[in-house]
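[job 4417] fold queue: 2 targets
>>> target A
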Amino acid sequence: MPRSTTMPPDLADAFGAVLDDDVRVDRHEVYARLRQESPAFRSERLGARVVTRYDDVRTVLRDTEGFRVPTAGVGSPVYGRTFLHMSGQEHAKKVGVVAREIRSRNALRNGLDDRVEGIARRTTADLALGTPVDLRDDFAMWIPLVTITELADLGHEGSFRRWYRAIGSGGTNSITDPGARDLALAARDELHDFLVTLIDERRRAPGDDLFSRLATTEYDGEPLPVDEIVSSVIFLLAAGVETTERVITSTLRHAALHPDEWRWLREHSGDEEALAAYSAEALRILPPVCGVMREATAPTTVAGVEVAEGERLCVLMASANLDETVFDDPHTFDRDRFAGRGSAQFTAAGQILPFGAGTHYCVGARLAQTEMRHAFAALAERVATITPVGDLPTAVGFMLRCPPSLPVVLGGA
């Protein structure tokens, strides 16, 4: 029998407060109640059924045939057709171009790890000591942004900063801010015009970079469509930078408020596996991407609730990663939770769900791990103390989440 979809009025109000970023409401407590009382409820504000339990979230994310990524409307990505919309041989072939550059062990051994380390060290060296800095805008953002633009040999980091933030906010995050979508579409069109010119140049004279690989790759004997190349680059920019910037910012806020955490990071800055475990826990409890949208391709059930064909689902990884049936003491930041299996969390076999699941598991997960490790290590080697400037801003955002800024004073090591 399908379970009841009736939601207690007080819980409905509490979820509405979560959508509004009401700091008086503990979203962790709200999610815990939702998992118990309404694990797949209908939200008219979101125009979607909200899925909250770990097993249900994982099932929806893994079933790429039964639940597709929406292609239009509020809450859907603005990049156009990307790897997320592909399946079978097409997906394997096209995503493989990117995977070879940013996910494979060969890529990490053959320069990617050194490149990210160099970017992290240069970014850290530029930080002022003893005077206020914003660790989000001055540090966390630049490491993934410069990494992507260097890998693709695109340059123009300043313009890309503006483009990617508008595109990210107007995609998934527009589910609670529809007005952001117009700004995102305008930014996408600007970036499209910039990239189209470069595609012609790289096809005539390809370089040793990711953008050239995409420009010259063929599928079924034909070059990839220009719009598809543009969409893929925009997707890598928005998804690759947004996720890492936000989780680094949130983690450093946690460390600034808990000096023992920063001391631990300094003591373990050279331990790759310890930093991987720490980063995995940060992604679990301080998720940069709290949810994604999916659309049912046929009538089905989720958490015992009937879902119609074409119905949208807001899949809340932020709730799934706090599921008490999967994680002990889930509301505690436990830096030893994934000890000895930290790196595994950045693969499709991992327990946490910040990167999706199944065939469409995020191709940039390993790159995110590498960026987080070098960001924390480089900063820890130069900075002994992180002192908040006033009351640090709290995290904001329903689908994409982190503090809007991180004003601190850094003390030299």
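>>> target B
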Amino acid sequence: MATWLITGCSTGLGRALAQAVLARGHNAVVTARNVSTLQDIAAAFPDTALALPLDVTDRDQISAAVQQARTRFGGVDVLVNNAGYGYRAAVEEADDADIRRLFDTNVFGAVDMIKAVLPDMRARKAGSILNISSIGARIKAAGSGYYSATKAALEGISGSLRNELQPLGIHVTVIEPGAFRTDFAGRSLTQSATAIGDYAETAGKRRKENDTVHGTQQGDPAKAAEAILAVAESADPPALLVLGEDAFNAFGAVAQAERADLDRWRDLSLSTAIGN
């Protein structure tokens, strides 16, 4: 039995994962900004679930959650950084305050969670950190520049963190989901107040009022939760796990296109050495 701390459990993937973890017999600290959304989970698993309020941009709440996990269960074995939200805007359209709020949640909130659990994990020479990213970090769709940037930043941090922690017995894995049947494209999706007409055929097509994806996604959050459980329980977890056929195919297409570009410009790339 392991103790999990999962952020962003009110709906979607976080909620499905919390339920799967508890059903598997693990302890789970399940968190959300509005803790009342978690009372049914806590009631269903009174001995192994601890529901706590947590806004990942509030360091005092982060410290309190980790301390309560330590008091109730002895510490956190698996951290899942799932809290976050989407934001759509052409790069030029975005409001500065919106951008900073997005990075505070999707990047710095995750970093603060990691820094809060690492002292105990290092002391035990064991632990797992699972950072929920997005295939958006790879495909960089028009209108999602800032969201893609937050996930790319999280992945960059995760890669270095993996190299730092692997010798200490601590695993780090990035999870890149595609489109799943959650509230991500609905309630959890925000956008700029400004819409510039010149971007109507690019970023504009992905604004909420023009988006028809919500409610039609093929990904099943319950199956994603089982896949994440399998990663956490593996003795040799991957650095990156892509979830969903759409994400898998998109990843492959981007990798192929990047390789083609690399090869096409090979001679110019290699021409910069002294003596060439």
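[job 4417] complete. Note on B: Residues 96-124 form the longest helix (29 residues).
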